[in-house]
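User: Hi! I'm working on a homework problem where we have to compare a predicted structure to a textbook description. Could you give me the structure for the chain below?
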Amino acid sequence: MMADSTAQARFNMVEQQIRPWEIFDPKILHLMEVLPREQFVPEAYQHLAYADIEIPIGHGQSMMFPRMEARLLQALDLKSADRVLEVGTGSGFLTACLANLSGQVVSIDTHTDFTESASERLQDLKLANVQLLSGDALTAPLGETGPFDAIAITGSLPAMTHLEPFRKLLKTTGRLFVVVGTPPVMEALLITRISDTQFSQEQIFETELAPLENAILPAVFEF
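Assistant: Happy to help. Predicted structure tokens:
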């Protein structure tokens, strides 16, 4: 009975939250319907694993809304041979999604307990194509692990200037998903590297997302 109710909860999440958010990629819809999100949710929130909320996971951090996770995955349009960088491992659920859709994932988080618990969960799912790192993505020497076909930044950045280190890690045709801005004006962007010096930028949707830890807020001028 429990397995049946969990399967129904996943189905409802896909049909009621994800599809209405213009997510039509069959690979992503199927993945969201079969991947056990409840295994990545703290025990106190197990009953809300498939709810339309941001689930707290500790250190003031939360899992993204399921619909935003799916929209991020659709925007990156991952291929089976892609190398992916995830900035902000968190619970490891999005890491598992990326690993299922790509060839290799490098994921980094400032909190060691996040990477340790994510490692256990990914091993339980037999996902061996993930390298987990502990550190600050804004200062870590990630160039040693790149370049990447896709980058997913799971915390917002206050200004475009913070993006430069990550843009340099993209291969030509590489894609980067990021939310930029400060409340109440924040935009989810898809940035694509066209050449060594050229990038395109597409606004996907307006949203709000907690900031990436240690990102410096822009100065506020008082008059």
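For your comparison, note the following. Helices lie at 2-18, 26-34, 66-76, 93-101, 112-124, 164-167. The radius of gyration is 17 Å. Good luck with the assignment!
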